[in-house]
Amino acid sequence: MPEILNKYTEIINTRLKELLDLKQVHPVIKDAMNYSVMAGGKRLRPTLNIMANALLSGNVRETLDIACAIEIIHTYSLVHDDLPAMDNDDLRRGKPTSHVMFGEAFAVLCGDALLNFAYEVMMKNALRHASNMDSHLKAMLEVATGAGVYGMITGQCGDIENEGQILTEAELKQVHEHKTGAMIKSSLLSGLLLCDPRQEYIDALTVYGNNIGLTFQIIDDVLDIVGDSKKMGKTLGKDKTSKKFTFPTLYGIEKSMKIAEEKTEEAVNALTIFGTRGKELTDLAYFILKRER
Amino acid sequence: MPEILNKYTEIINTRLKELLDLKQVHPVIKDAMNYSVMAGGKRLRPTLNIMANALLSGNVRETLDIACAIEIIHTYSLVHDDLPAMDNDDLRRGKPTSHVMFGEAFAVLCGDALLNFAYEVMMKNALRHASNMDSHLKAMLEVATGAGVYGMITGQCGDIENEGQILTEAELKQVHEHKTGAMIKSSLLSGLLLCDPRQEYIDALTVYGNNIGLTFQIIDDVLDIVGDSKKMGKTLGKDKTSKKFTFPTLYGIEKSMKIAEEKTEEAVNALTIFGTRGKELTDLAYFILKRER
């Protein structure tokens, strides 16, 4: 794990484990939820949430459950994405996928349980922070908007529909903005919103989020072609098999990387407003550009 | 539609339609969400929410979006329950199920989108009622608890696992309490919680909810054997085919109906504390006992 992600991984993982130590629930669903959430992963989105919260001297203890809820939502989306009816993937985070381990019915229920549980976690957290409840509700709504039909889900629909199609750069960007970008942006903004931020801070972090979101997806698609399946813990070469239209399909690898570099610079420039506090997110932007290669 | 359910159906349906008039989302997911939510249905759970809210002179406009969110959550659970990997049902509310209409991938995403959207709706509603935000959060958490791994989802797990098994009455009750009872109870309590109720009111409504929840499921299972598939708008006789263990399997139809009658009396008695305001929920309990036969 690169150092920049190491900083918060332990407190995120410890809290996730605590939260998922569920009592009086069906044992198979408890296992399935724990299996997928604790299978590893970079914890990128919760880290973004905590780092964004820290931009305005937030309190990591206050945003930690929102960060964990975001990771739980991300995990649910992977569990459902991997289903036979969707991407039909057998390997995720280096391990057999949920439906391979628990069967398809439990994998559907596991995703449902995780999504719902994320909201339970955030609501309980909000009730514990009664003096800042309005900000908590805004942060939760930001997460929900990124995860839902206005965000990630519309992106996944585009992804399904576009298989075998040829897209323009604008169309491709739009799918990416929804599919990956929306949750990345929401992870950041929800952390910031707990601090009752001025609009210019929200705007700056939105620019940062949009740009690292796009970079993340471009790099993901490039790695699907040139990456090391063992290092990445998932089946690669799937985009070609499933005829998914990506930045490398449109521009080739070299130009795609050039675009990713430009986007990263735009992201980093947007952080200027936060002064030296922007250091962590700057490092993270470069990590996303250079990850696993 | 029986008169007791008629009272709030129109405002529920009108509001659901407004809420689901989504802009800038993927057209197929918008269609799929609208298709399943607007396919009809008795709107029992949102009606329970509004009636419970009215017990303590609540404000129907304030709880209406919670009521709608509950119906949206109920619909998501049906969409996923009907999937080939789950109950594999082709017919629901008298119409082809979501995966028959839109394909399996979109049916998975439609369920996900609906569940997430329910929380978006409730959070926006809470933000509009800033002076009562604490009660809104408690009401939302009640809904989330009923819908999630502590409630409905653990019930669905039990349902899958118990196919072909023989259960005791206690085991069967436990599955029912989770699968159907939890959401019915949460529908009621979330409506009440907006009024900052005394504990004795919560307790009374919990007794009512547990008893009508069990009655609802017993009648459902009896109707699966003796009901009219056309009237009910779904495939019947499925419990036998799938070897689902139910109250009629355990006790036969006559004794099952006797239990349902007893439970209904217990439910109605619990409403005494609310005086004449309990009239609507009393009528509803008898409707549940006598529905569609």
Structural write-up:
Chains A, B: Belongs to the FPP/GGPP synthase family. Chains A, B: Its cofactor is Mg(2+). Chains A, B: This is Farnesyl diphosphate synthase. Chains A, B: Its EC number is 2.5.1.10. Chains A, B: One of its GO terms (molecular function) is (2E,6E)-farnesyl diphosphate synthase activity. By secondary structure, chain A is mainly α. Chain A has a single domain, classed as Orthogonal Bundle (Farnesyl Diphosphate Synthase), CATH 1.10.600. Helices cover 73% and strands 1% of the residues of chain A. Chain A is built from 14 helices and two strands. The first copy, chain A, has helices at residues 3-19, 27-37, 44-55, 60-81, 98-102, 104-128, 133-147, 152-161, 169-193, 199-226, 229-232, 238-241, 247-270, 279-290; strands spanning 91-92, 95-96. In chain A, strands 1-2 form a two-stranded antiparallel sheet. In chain A, helix 2 packs across helix 6, helix 3 (44-55) crosses helix 9 (169-193) and helix 7 (133-147) packs antiparallel against helix 9 (169-193). The longest helix of chain A has 28 residues, at 199-226.
Using brief descriptors, characterize the structure shown.
homodimer, Farnesyl Diphosphate Synthase, two-stranded antiparallel sheet, 2 strands
